[in-house]
Amino acid sequence: VAEGAEERAAFERALTLYEELARGASDDRDLALDLALARGNLGTSSADAGELERATELVYAAAKGLRALVSDYPSIPLYRRHLWGALSNIGRVESQAGRMDRAMEALTESAEGLLDDWSRAPDDFELRLAAGQALANLSNMLVFAGADADDARGAARRARDLLEPRLEEAPAAGRGPLV
User: Fold this and answer.
1) Separation CA 127–CA 37 (nearest Å)
2) Cβ-contact 124, 134 below 8 angstroms
3) 15: buried, middle or exposed (CB in 10 Å: 19+, 13-18, 0-12)?
4) Which tops the pLDDT comparison, 47 or 168?
5) What is the distance between the terminal CA atoms of the chain, rounded to a whole angstrom?
6) Residue 84: its pLDDT value, please?
7) pLDDT at 95 over 80
């Protein structure tokens, strides 16, 4: 518990600093990225502490900042990757708050974005892994929300198809088949 509180306090200090810096440098895209990431970090930490209202506010603010960066700089893949991660965080927080429709919407957008990015860079194994994980998260959410079993199985199969080749390339120790 103390460790989580210390982490939140550090994230709080970072967010305060980035917000102060951003007031004077609204056109600094690196600062805008740092601010969005600080909001996302504090948001997920707040969710872990059960502060779901604050967490929701922060993860949506993070995604909003990242959407602006993606819109302004569409050729920078790093911004899209962070946006897909922020949407996954929204899915997590919305799920914890019991808002499954919103959670599935965010997780679906995250998975679709990652799959789209991966289709443009099929040799990027980290992107492939992230897309597979996003599909696995979506599949789990579909099952948890009681969605159509075929939809959940379809998302799980797509995740397995993306992740299985990655696992085959991993060192033999600690690896097993996906079921």
Assistant:
1) 19
2) no
3) buried
4) 47
5) 34
6) 94
7) yes
Scanning the chain, the segments in alpha helix (DSSP H) are 2-23, 29-48, 52-72, 77-96, 100-120, 125-144, 149-169
Q: DSSP assignment of 81-127, as one string?
A: HHHHHHHHHHHHHHHHTT-HHHHHHHHHHHHHHHHHHHHH-TT-HHH
- The angle formed by the CA atoms of residues 169, 174 and 176, to the nearest 5 degrees, is 70
Amino acid at 111: A
Which range among 45-49, 83-87, 99-103, 173-177 shows the weakest confidence by mean pLDDT?
173-177
Q: What percentage of the chain has pLDDT greater than the value 90?
A: 41
Cα(15)–Cα(57) distance, integer angstroms: 13
Helix, strand and coil content of the chain, in percent to the nearest 5, comes to 80, 0, 20
Query: For 132-179, what is each residue's pLDDT tens digit?
Result: 888 778 777 777 766 566 666 666 666 666 666 655 554 443 434 433
Structure tokens at 111: 């998975």
147 contacts: CB under 8 Å, gap ≥ 6: 104
* Structure tokens, 99: 């808002």
